[in-house]
Sequence to fold (849 residues):
Amino acid sequence: MRPFLAMAAILALMPFGLPPYAMTLLTEALILGLTAMSLDLMVGYTRLISFGHAASYGLGAYTSGWLLLHTDFPVLFVVPLAALFAGVVAIGVAWVCTLATGVSFSMLTLAFAQLLYAVAFKWTSVTGGSDGLAGIPRRAGPFGMTILSTKSGFYYFVLACLLGAFLFCRSLVNSPFGAVLRGIRENEAKTLSLGYNIRAYKIAVVALSYGLGGLAGALYAPFAGFANTELLFWLFSGQVLIMVIVGGSGTLVGPVLGAAFFMLAEHWLSSYTEAWALFFGLIFIGFVLFAPEGIFGVFSTRLIRRARPVG
Amino acid sequence: MALLELDGLTRRYGGIVAVDQVSMRVEAGEVRAVIGPNGAGKTTLFHLISGVVKPSEGQVRFADAPLAGLTAHQVCQRGVSRTFQLTALFPEMTARENARLAAQARQKRSWQPYGGGNIFAVAQRLGDAALEQIGLGHVANRPAGLLSHGDQRLLEVAMALAQQPRLLLLDEPTQGLSVEETAQAVETLARLLVDTKMTVLLVEHDMEVVFRLAHKITVLHRGAVIADGAPEAVRGDPEVQRAYLGGLE
Amino acid sequence: MDFAAFLLTQCVNALSQAALLFFLGVGLTLIFGIMRIVNFAHGSLYMLGAFVGYTLVRLTGNFWIALLIAPVLVGAFGGVFEYAILRRLYRRDGSAFLMVTFGLALMLGDGIRLLWGSEALQVPLPDVFSGVVFLLDEPFPSYRLFLAAAGVIVAVTIWQFLERTRLGLLIRATSQNAEMVHALGVDVRLVRSAVFGIGCALAAVGGVLAAPLVTASLGMAATVIIDAFVIVIIGGMGSFLGSLIGALLVAFVQVFGNYYFPDLALAFMYLIMLLVLVVRPGGLLGKEA
Fold:
């Protein structure tokens, strides 16, 4: 608990030290961190490789964006609502995708994301087509509470979501439910033969994962002020997957670090070269080959030599 | 009423009949060995009973209720635990964690998504007890993937036991074990089965193991039952001898 | 236009589409069958073929030279990638391949953007097939007829290659029992590199042939990778005949679906993929259950 409190305290103090430009980057990093962490539930803890996480993000973003543009609801209500919507849709998506296993599962997740991408393109009246939704307001309220409209106010909102999601996920993976996920990860057939209804577990974890990804997307729309089809593109799905692997899958914290690393790299590399995505792909391949446990994994097993976590 | 009743159980794969009109009654507390040459359909029989494969004909009745239409995990929940011919474990978890996960499956609220201290404690107790019974207490904290082959086979049995099943299906538990390991495993199992009065269906190739543990033997050949009875009777049965030695393949 | 002509038009469209999809799918299924690798970069290699083809056509002014050389270049690139990187992963589990080839797809996507820009590039039809042919009084672009014919020719060629040549035999044997082949003294690693290279080359052939029809664009890879996987999943991972059947099925659904329900064509494809996965998880002719 103590490392968590320390991190939370450090992050809470950031608005007092950092210039506004850095605050914007940090807020975006936290949103991406939440996205990556949500994917880790599927990839790291259950070995369900998804290439379609952009679907959850985009769904959350478009839903919250649309609600903020077309209704009077304040951001505080819209964000959880959009996340809930993404989670519910995800149950259906999960039900279908878990009909298959292995590669077929991954392809189905990609297919759904592409389907949503195509729908977003065509359904211009609702989604704005290729232009997307713009001018999304960070509506204040309820009761005239304007704090979320400010930069630091919104930052704290994002931070609260990330920390809350982290506590939720950590509780989940350390619970009996989490132990079963781990069994599925290591030997799916054996877990089934022990009497666990693994399909149900998979559907649940995918729905939760997409729900949290939807939360991140729902935060992004009012943060950036827009939502467009890029958020649903497979390239973004891939980037989130890279964050998880490079950061350290199966650790919850690793992917958040991975997201931060990714943003830093994007920011830094892109000022040197136009080909930063190319280099990042190379870095990704390098990690898969030589350090599959990711940054956090390297840190905790090679440098700290902690005992293997139980459960 | 027998604990397990198989009635004309048949499984076809295209033109091949893997299991042919197998009928069998296994009483509670009985240890029944299922033997036969390779390809006789023994593992398929296990798959049919445990719900991994659906029968083409016939039915399986367990504790006087049909198992038709149940999936593998549902059959397990009814009280049927099994081990596999090819060792299936959770290699990165310790032996204790393996056993705990097995025991957890039969707890109420095994799916609880938060906390779980209580559930884990109960499951760990059952798991540890099973490990002790099998004699793996000394390697309890070693990752399963690093155990010797013999210990891995025993761990699988321990996991099945941790589930406190009413019927235990053991698929070649001594396969791949050395002579000493086999002798040790057999003694452990013999003691265990007497102590727990467990009902067991045992597939084995090693006849010494069969004669040491089994109350009755069923012989399969090309999917069909060709002999069924006390070990001595089966030993002397000419048709059994022909099936094994006669070169009919 | 009367019904017969309509049907013929759509069939020609479907057959030419099937040919392109077949080039895509057969490489993917071969790679999976022999190496148990799911090549996520397959769509990107197809795209690479299209862009390299574009450049070669501009350099030489000759479509046929491009068609000949681009696949060789892409195939060589694939072989090198397999040698340098994929070889290290054979002991790891399948998800490592999936992710590394995904990394390759990302790199190719960005690399292509850097070398050729973000605009879609127009590749001119080869002169000899730039006209129309009249069947049943309806004009058909002769290029499409060429594609359909090319598909048949290549399918037969590959079939004969697998059945009659030594390398083909080695490939088939390796897909069934790599260890046995190794025990017989064959360097299985070379077979694998060859197969990966051939698979990439085939994808590139598809890309070059598709370029005059759909233009070479950065979005190609994403749509096409799903098409490729749908084909292979329907036909069965590792089955040559399956990739043929899958390509035909998907092409016909796409073409006819596009005509009757233009907005739902995408959904139809996924629907078929889902149906097949539900009914037969191994695909129609697959090896994996």
